[in-house]
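Please fill in the sequence for the structure shown.

STRUCTURE ENCODING:
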């Protein structure tokens, strides 16, 4: 009986505790302060920016090319023979000046030809003198015959008159006629002789011209046994030795003119169009007119750790445009080159060509362009999308002709979630 009463007391106590706890919970809930939700803060994105300014921009076009000989000569002898002497600087890569000895060919045979030609010419000249003397002599005899003929004609006329008057015999008239005809025939013979001599003289004079030409040719061949450098430059393919025989078809050396080196490079169709600007193009289109021919460029030659820089000027273009690639070969002559210039044909060089001048434009990094037509500005701390059409795109930058962009701030590296109106801040 006592145990039962004890259990009832424990149950009642637990119930009381539960009721009291419940009341406390209800009171706390009723009396607890009401919580207010905090508003969400807008994210501000950090971005890389650049301020744009109007400026005149003349980009460089970079190409690569090779040095070639602007002028060179294949030195070949005009006569054949044995080489008896070579120039002091006759070796591969040597530097020679204009008029310097390259080689000598044995002149013996050519001296003999000169002597023979001189003798033949002198023989003809002697015949000319002899014939001219004969013509003078026959001309004097003809003159005498003509004078005698005049006298014989007077005597004949006189005797004819006397015969008609009966004062002279017929025989005297016949004698006079015979004498006149004799002198007449003599004068005719002298004239024919003179004519033949003049024809012979013309032949001798023609022969003298041929003999003179042969002599000049023989003298030229003799002079050509000594070979000189026609201009200063570098020797290439110098392979002959003293004692060797050389023919007229063989090249004794190749001479590259030192003062006329060119750089040959190929320019793409796109870059080619950037250089070719019509003279009549309106400058308000932000394009300054330029000429391609005569344009100055810069050539950089790197050899080891050394860099040589040369100025050059465009002189000519290739004859054809590459149908496959659309490029064209360009040749520019290097300026300020002399015999001491270390540059040689075959060197690989970098070429920098000033492109056309763009006036009052802005230069924007290529990284700022999205989908080839959109850039993002920052206006009052928010993103503003803008459509653009680049005038020119280079390796790192592009050129925009929109003058309204002057002073604008652009985002140089747009991120994937960028959108119009987004809140941003410069890094």
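FILLED IN BY: designer on duty
SEQUENCE:
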């Amino acid at each position: 009986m006592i145990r039962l009463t004890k259990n009832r007391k424990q149950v009642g106590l637990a119930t009381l505790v539960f009721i009291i706890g419940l009341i406390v919970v209800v009171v706390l809930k009723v009396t607890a302060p009401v919580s207010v939700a905090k508003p969400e803060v807008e994210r501000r994105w950090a971005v890389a920016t650049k301020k744009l300014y109007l400026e005149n921009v003349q980009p460089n076009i970079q190409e690569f090319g090779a040095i070639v000989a602007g002028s060179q000569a294949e030195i070949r002898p005009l006569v054949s023979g044995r080489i008896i002497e070579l120039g002091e600087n006759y070796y591969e890569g040597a530097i020679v000046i204009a008029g310097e000895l390259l080689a000598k060919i044995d002149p013996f045979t050519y001296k003999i030809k000169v002597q023979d030609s001189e003798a033949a010419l002198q023989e003809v000249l002697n015949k000319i003198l002899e014939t001219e003397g004969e013509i003078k002599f026959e001309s004097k005899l003809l003159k005498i015959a003509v004078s005698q003929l005049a006298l014989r004609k007077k005597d004949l006329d006189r005797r004819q008159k006397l015969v008609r008057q009966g004062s002279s015999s017929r025989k005297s008239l016949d004698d006079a006629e015979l004498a006149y005809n004799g002198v007449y025939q003599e004068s005719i013979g002298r004239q024919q002789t003179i004519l033949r001599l003049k024809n012979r003289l013309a032949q001798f004079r023609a022969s003298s011209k041929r003999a003179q030409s042969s002599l000049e040719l023989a003298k030229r061949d003799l002079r050509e046994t000594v070979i000189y450098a026609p201009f200063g430059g570098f020797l290439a393919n110098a392979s002959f030795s003293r004692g060797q025989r050389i023919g007229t078809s063989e090249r004794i050396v190749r001479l590259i003119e030192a003062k006329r080196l060119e750089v040959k490079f190929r320019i793409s169709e796109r870059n080619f169009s950037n250089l070719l600007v019509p003279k009549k193009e309106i400058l308000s289109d932000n394009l300054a007119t330029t000429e391609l021919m005569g344009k100055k460029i810069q050539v950089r030659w790197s050899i080891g750790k050394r860099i040589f820089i040369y100025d050059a000027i465009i002189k000519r273009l290739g004859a054809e445009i590459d149908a496959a690639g659309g490029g064209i070969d360009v040749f520019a002559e290097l300026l300020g080159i002399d015999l001491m210039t270390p540059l040689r044909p075959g060197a690989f060089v970098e070429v920098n060509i000033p492109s056309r001048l763009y006036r009052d434009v802005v230069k924007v990094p290529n990284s700022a362009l999205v989908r080839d037509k959109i850039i993002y500005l920052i206006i009052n701390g928010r993103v503003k999308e803008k459509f653009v059409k680049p005038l020119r795109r280079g390796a790192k930058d592009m050129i925009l002709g929109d003058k309204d962009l002057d002073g604008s701030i652009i985002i140089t590296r747009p991120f994937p979630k960028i959108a119009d109106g987004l809140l941003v801040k410069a890094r």
